Amino acid sequence: MELKVGVLTILATILSLLARVHSKLCALEPLGSGQDDTDQVEAAIAECGQYGELVFGPGDYNITRKMSWNLVASRVDLYGYLNFVPDIQYWLNPDNTYRVVFIQNQASWFVVTGHDFTIDAHGVGGIQGNGQTWWTYYANRTREDGDGRPIAFTLSHVSRGLVKDFRIEAQPFWCNTVADSEDVVYDGMYCNATNTDPAYFGQNVVPNTDGIDTFRSDRVALTNWDITCGDDCLAIKGNTTNLYVANYVCRGGNGIAFGSLGQYVNLPDIVDHVEMQNLTLLRLPSNIQPNMVSGVYLKSWTATVHGVPPTGGGGGGGYVSNVVAKDVYVDQVTVPLHLYQTNGGNSGDTPSYLQFSNLTFVNWSGTSLRSKVVDIECSANAPCPNIQFFNFNVAAPNRTAPDYECVNVVSESGLPGPCNVTG
Ligand SMILES: *[C@@H]1O[C@H](CO)[C@@H](O)[C@H](O)[C@H]1NC(C)=O
Ligand SMILES: *[C@@H]1O[C@H](CO)[C@@H](O)[C@H](O)[C@H]1NC(C)=O
Ligand SMILES: *[C@@H]1O[C@H](CO)[C@@H](O)[C@H](O)[C@H]1NC(C)=O
Ligand SMILES: *[C@@H]1O[C@H](CO)[C@@H](O)[C@H](O)[C@H]1NC(C)=O
Ligand SMILES: *[C@@H]1O[C@H](CO)[C@@H](O)[C@H](O)[C@H]1NC(C)=O
Ligand SMILES: *[C@@H]1O[C@H](CO)[C@@H](O)[C@H](O)[C@H]1NC(C)=O
Ligand SMILES: *[C@@H]1O[C@H](CO)[C@@H](O)[C@H](O)[C@H]1NC(C)=O
Ligand SMILES: *[C@@H]1O[C@H](CO)[C@@H](O)[C@H](O)[C@H]1NC(C)=O
User: Fold this and answer.
1) Is pLDDT above 60 for 155?
2) Could you say which residues form the signal peptide (predicted)?
3) pTM exceeding the 0.90 threshold for the entire prediction
4) Nearest ligand 2 atom to alpha carbon 139
């Protein structure tokens, strides 16, 4: 639990610093009657966002253009919602969003930067993403990475930040991202991308509504998360180190992802020291969200380059190591534990050089939709050493015996049965 101790130290630092500041107080109320609140929110942040305190009273604050907060030694109490008005054509104009998330050239409509701050939404406020308008608009249109759909909440270049008890309703695209940051704690996060348009019942019209993507960040903690989405409920991307995850619930979607890694040929992706515990992955009714694909899955591109990011790529190196996932419960997931290194590739590609090693899976329970409950297919060019299991008991369907598959695994221990080379 050394990561956990580190996280508590960060929290103590932020809180003791905040106790000494707050010379200024800005209190806001929504303007109401359909008015635009962006000006008053920006003015309050300019006035109190550094060495001050802001209190947003309950209600909706309409935000009609991109907004960034630079918070320094400050505190924000958000008892209402920042309501991002869903003018799709406006937001799709690249000039109208920030492009601070380098990977895949993603767009952000709201970016927080700075250091030594707390944003506390007390479980009653946060962001209204108005996603249904977006999901319906995109249901019959092409969706791809970097297409301009905005990330709901972006933390970029943050050090020592705490986000607490924050709610994001109906994220149009990724719910959160943390990039180029260190010592960030998110304690209490709710995201919910649930289609309610009957025209699309039974389909996943909420792809790319990831709970969070972490990128180029060190010492991040995600505790007490509840994510409903149609994609990765957590995506650990390149240069995420010392990530601590606890009490994380994923409802529907693809599961908890490492990757995709190795998309950028000139940028090695390093993921080192990830500790996750108490993960719950729950399948939703299939008319609401048909997918609950994996518990935890790890993936890289091949070593062959196919086009360029954001949609193409491959050929990137790096490694993933020192990962622990313990106390994991999976409810009718398709493939509970999956590792593959062929994302975006073709047969005949050069196998990836990005290596996965030192992966430990402790105390897994629940049910799988298929008999193959573990499917670890490492690259021939980077076989995986030191894959360990303790108390891994995920049941296969209909009381059949579970299958375990290991390909290019150097050493494995602890599964209840043999991990066959081909399953
Ligand atoms: C504020 O939001 C409400 C609800 O989404 C909307 O009806 C209204 O038009 C918005 N006002 C502005 C100025 O965008
Ligand atoms: C979009 O697709 C859905 C189902 O796939 C269909 O019911 C709907 O009519 C389509 N909408 C448009 C505008 O084409
Ligand atoms: C997510 O939103 C849907 C639709 O509003 C709702 O039915 C569901 O209960 C919500 N999920 C959670 C976990 O709150
Ligand atoms: C595990 O996570 C769930 C959901 O977040 C929470 O209710 C429960 O208290 C956690 N268990 C422990 C032992 O922390
Ligand atoms: C990750 O860090 C390594 C070592 O500092 C660096 O060479 C690499 O470019 C970084 N990759 C990304 C995706 O930033
Ligand atoms: C194993 O995991 C289950 C479900 O996630 C949890 O309830 C239980 O406390 C864990 N047991 C141990 C010994 O950690
Ligand atoms: C994997 O674990 C071993 C044993 O603890 C350690 O020596 C090695 O450095 C680790 N590999 C990486 C890439 O961190
Ligand atoms: C399990 O049994 C159900 C009901 O008989 C059947 O529909 C399903 O295909 C079976 N699953 C497997 C993997 O055999």
Assistant:
1) yes
2) 1-23
3) yes
4) 1
